Automatic annotation (TrEMBL):
Protein name in the entry: Alkaline phosphatase PhoX
Region ranges (Disordered): 778-800
Pfam families found in the cross-reference section: PhoX
Taxonomy of the source species: Bacteria, Pseudomonadati, Pseudomonadota, Alphaproteobacteria, Sphingomonadales
PANTHER family: DUF839 DOMAIN-CONTAINING PROTEIN (PTHR35399:SF2), SLR8030 PROTEIN (PTHR35399)
Protein source organism: Novosphingobium clariflavum
């Protein structure tokens, strides 16, 4: 609410300490002119406050005794990140008067505009802070008078009304915000590529936006086309493409997709629709965004793009293939999920569920050693066709045959028996150099990489935090050997910086202890014990460090890491350095009633739909956070608690809805997480945390969503004992550590997506005034003949019943130009 403030420290002389009866100048002015104050009143607590102090008047002393009456408006209150407009009033609005504004005191801001009306974004503050501004008016003969106004700025607050649940086929955002659809599946990236027909007839996805857009990042460009980390009007959007809605890519769906043989043209289209895209975005003014179709920066990186291997596993015989006889080269990246951004402005794309793309015939098992079969089973390379049966499209073209990992030759260089070892890595890409070769960073380990959040603190080693996205997998951290030098962040030899910081160091895996502490366990050859025999698989003896990095999951098993409920995105609070990890969910098999632990403490049922379908385990997921001992990336111990527990507020009891969620902020299956950039008020002092969902448990009530939060810190809650419930009414207790419960002030739903989508991929411009969000696989359960979503066409009107859905990025802006969420 806009408030008029009392005088606070500086009175502007509008007080009387003289006890004599001489008439003051203020009184003289009041006798001659009718004076008034203007206070712009807000519509509510989430509405921005405008302007200033009490009206001030002063008398001129020119020869004809003309008086100059001016006003700087009334005092006002606002909060960080909101737009404030200052409006001065010179002498009855005389246009001939020269007017200007200047800041007198308080946290410095940038004034936009000239003359009587200027505006600014309220800065980040830790406590209520007064900003004083001076308005000056000059007559044509140079007479000047001034008046002042004070704007009191309070700390950041969520400044929007929560978006309700929605099952509509549109992206819904709060009132006062607008949505612009940006790059979509199939959009052409080269000037010569035809517009996307979206009827299954399109080809050449090596020059089109891929499918299932996932993690994204906006890399700033200067007007001259160089790197500019501060640009909020031009940049390169780098986006992952995780998977396919294959039913929409072909005229009538795919041919023989489950077993083959596949038509080569269909298989090639599907292969090329994976990977990464780079596309130029531009703001035409006032945040009117579009993409540049023929930009020289536009690029597709696909499963066919040449790659090079770096770090300790490069050159290992485990990476030998018919394409790469030395284990140094490779082709392609696939199932690219979350990401990471380096301080030298490269993109880390993460290969997640790559194992299912490979075919291994039944005869292959007998040709493998026991060690190989143990590793193959641990990573799940067990399909007899591969996800899309690509290997059946040709018996000679290696674009297709590399997806068949069956041993057919005498040596590893005769076939693609090791091709799956070339995937599961973090891949570094220089977005500013379309000719550069992406580098796979083997020091960061091989797994189902969900993301790779980079924490860079000058003078400390670089820290890279990574989740392995499968049930009962682990949280990892890589610590560089080299201490980070801030000057390296500006290097133009960007991939060389990756060589310096990402190729040498120590990979750790996390153990979460029952007392709220944790340990980072090093995965270093010589200190990692043999992995014990399990079931039919014998003890695994590691051969060297390359073996540990290629088979990281086995090494993590061996040292006793804590299995987690599907570790997904990692994000770091830019102020506190605390690390957040989303744990999407687990089922009854992965987290039975007797299989909980302090870091993964819940087992319960969340009945779904009218039929009350049972969902036992941890179907709604949670978010865990940790703080390193000494706040250093090289720490080997940490403290942790559970920041939020997902829950359906309408159904969940107190032993499930532990975070006190309501209809305005309940959620299920947290997936993406991201902190607002530290370059704007939303990422400063108390940064906004964004939470994206990939939900299947609560989708009978609402589509997937994006929430904004103002989180506290590790330890702001306390110990908690949960009573879990299993099938048949059995119960068991589990002790854990829980953060402070959510409130309407600290957690709100900001966006709900269209039908059958996942919300994933998020970034903002450095100024915080545009938020980019990925909408993945809308209508994923439909068919070519009967699409179950028509988004994004449905965003702006009624789409025809045959219109096929497309994954896309949206740009979200605040109608008043303010900072998103505040």
């Amino acid at each position: 609410m806009t408030q008029e403030l009392p005088a606070s420290g500086y009175s502007d002389g509008d007080v009387d300490t003289n006890s004599t009866s001489v008439t003051s100048l203020e009184e003289l002015a009041a006798q001659r002119y009718s004076r008034r104050q203007a206070l712009f009143r807000g519509a509510g607590a989430t509405t921005m406050a405008f302007m200033g102090t009490a009206v001030l008047a002063a008398c001129g002393d020119d020869d004809d005794d003309k008086k100059l009456d001016i006003s700087a408006g009334s005092n006002a209150a606002t909060s960080s990140g909101r737009v404030v407009t200052l409006t001065g009033s010179p002498a009855d609005g005389e246009a001939a008067y020269a007017t200007s504004w200047a800041q007198t005191s308080g946290t410095a801001v940038t004034l936009t505009g000239t003359g009587s009306v200027v505006s600014f974004i309220a800065p980040a503050v830790s406590a209520a802070t007064d900003l004083v501004f001076t308005f000056t008016a000059k007559t044509p003969v140079g007479q000047a008078r001034t008046a002042q106004t004070t704007v009191r700025v309070s700390p950041s607050a969520l400044g929007f009304a929560a978006v309700p649940h929605s099952l509509a086929d549109v992206v819904k955002v709060p009132s006062g915000y607008s949505v612009t659809v940006m790059t979509r599946l199939g959009d052409p990236l080269s000037a010569s590529t035809a517009a996307y027909a979206n009827d299954g007839s399109d080809s050449d996805f090596a020059h089109r936006i891929g499918d299932h857009g996932d993690a994204l990042h906006f890399f700033g460009l200067s007007s001259a086309g160089g790197r500019d980390d501060g640009s909020s009007v031009r940049g390169l959007m780098v986006q992952n493409h995780e998977n396919l809605n294959v039913q929409y890519l072909h005229p009538n769906g795919p041919t023989n997709v489950s077993s083959g043989p596949r038509p080569a043209a269909e298989a090639l289209k599907e292969i090329e629709a994976h990977g990464v895209s780079v596309s130029e975005y531009q703001d035409a003014g006032s945040r009117k965004w579009s993409y540049v179709k023929g930009s020289s920066f536009n690029r597709r990186i696909t499963p066919n793009t040449p790659m090079s291997f770096h770090g300790p596993a490069a050159g290992s015989s485990l990476l030998f293939t018919a394409y790469s006889a030395t284990g140094i080269a490779g082709r392609g990246t696939i199932n690219n999920c979350a990401n990471g951004i380096t301080p030298w402005a490269t993109n880390l794309t993460c290969e997640e569920n790559w194992a299912g793309y490979f075919r291994r015939d039944a005869a292959d098992d007998a040709k493998r050693t026991a060690r190989e079969m143990t590793a193959i089973a641990r990573y799940g390379v067990t399909s007899r066709t591969g996800n899309f049966a690509w290997s059946t499209a040709s018996s000679t073209d290696s674009i297709y045959t590399k997806w068949n990992a069956t041993i057919t030759g005498a040596a590893a260089t005769d076939d693609y028996r090791n091709e799956f070892n070339q995937y599961g890595w973090v891949v570094e890409i220089d977005p500013y150099d379309p000719a550069s070769t992406p580098r796979k960073r083997t020091a960061l380990g091989r797994m189902g990489h969900e993301g790779a959040f980079v924490r860079a603190v000058a003078g400390q080693p670089l820290g890279v935090y990574m989740g392995d996205d499968s049930r009962r997998e682990y949280l990892y951290k890589f610590v560089s050997s080299a201490a980070y030098a801030a000057a390296d962040g500006a290097s133009t030899s960007r991939l060389a910086m990756g060589d310096k910081y990402l190729d040498a160091g120590t990979l750790y895996v996390a153990r979460f202890n029952a007392d709220g502490t944790g340990q980072w366990l090093p995965l270093v050859f010589g200190s990692v014990p043999n992995r014990a025999a399990t079931g039919t698989y014998p003890e695994y003896v590691f051969a060297d460090q390359a073996d540990i990095l290629v088979n990281t999951r086995l090494a993590a098993d061996a040292v006793g890491a804590t299995p987690m409920d599907r570790p997904e995105w990692t994000a770091g609070n830019p102020v506190t350095g605390e690390i957040y990890l989303t744990l999407t969910n687990n089922n009854a098999a992965g987290r039975p009633l007797t299989g909980t632990d302090a870091a993964n403490p819940r087992h319960y049922n969340d009945p779904k739909g009218a039929s009350a379908t049972a969902q036992y385990g941890n179907p709604n997921g949670h978010i865990i956070r940790l703080r390193e001992t000494g706040d250093t990336t090289a720490a080997t111990t940490f403290k942790w608690d559970i920041y939020l527990f997902g829950a359906d507020a309408a159904d969940a009891g107190a032993q499930v809805n532990l975070s006190g969620l309501t209809a305005d902020n309940d959620f299920s299956s947290p997936d993406g997480c991201y902190f607002s950039r530290a370059t704007n008020p939303a990422g400063q002092i108390n940064p906004v945390l964004w939470i994206e969902t990939d939900d299947g448990a609560m989708t009978d009530r609402t589509n997937c969503m994006l929430l904004a939060a103002l989180p506290g810190h590790v330890g702001d809650g306390g110990a908690k004992t949960i009573t879990n419930t299993g099938s048949g009414g059995a119960t068991a207790t589990q002790a854990t550590y829980q953060g402070a419960p959510a409130t309407a002030a600290t957690l709100r739903r900001f966006l709900v997506g269209p039908v059958q989508c996942e919300i994933t991929g998020i970034d903002m411009t450095p100024d915080g005034r545009t938020l980019f969000v990925g909408i993945q696989h809308p209508g994923e359960d439909g068919s070519a003949a009967a699409p179950s979503s028509h988004w994004p066409d449905s965003q702006t009107g009624t789409a025809a019943a045959t219109v096929r859905p497309r994954s896309a990025i949206v740009a979200i802006t605040k109608d008043d130009g303010g900072i998103i969420a505040l």
